[in-house]
Here is the input.
Amino acid sequence: MDDNLRREIILENYQNPDNRGLIDDDSYLKVNTNSESCIDNLDFMMKIEDGIVKDIRFDGEACAISTSASSIMTRKLNGKSVEEVKDILTNYKNMIEEKDYDEDVLGELNVYDHICKQPNRKNCALLPMVSVEKMLGEFGNGK
Here is the structure.
């Protein structure tokens, strides 16, 4: 992917993030995730019905990488089955950690394929993935 396009996508999703803003609904799984190395402190909420992500949202204070990754990831995961979500998360983590991954599964999340060149930003890019994994853990435990 062209570096200018990559920056444009990240900036657009930072300035105008999708799925930002929480709602008051106890049927959602909720989690707070923060970074020890950055200002990132985000709340995520996700509603799963019949094994499908019906809605996923986030809010809080975060850097451009975490905010944009949260925007793109929530957009990517909405409407997916739990199994599809797990596949996306595995491929995303593998990409960030420079392991083999299927770029076709990730779509726009591929904009972070060069984040490995900035090791201090890896945690920022992984924050939404960690949040979704935590919520899936709660879902798996019967919430």
Observations:
- The chain has one domain: 3-140.
- The first helix runs from residue 3 to 15.
- The two ends are 40 Å apart (CA to CA).
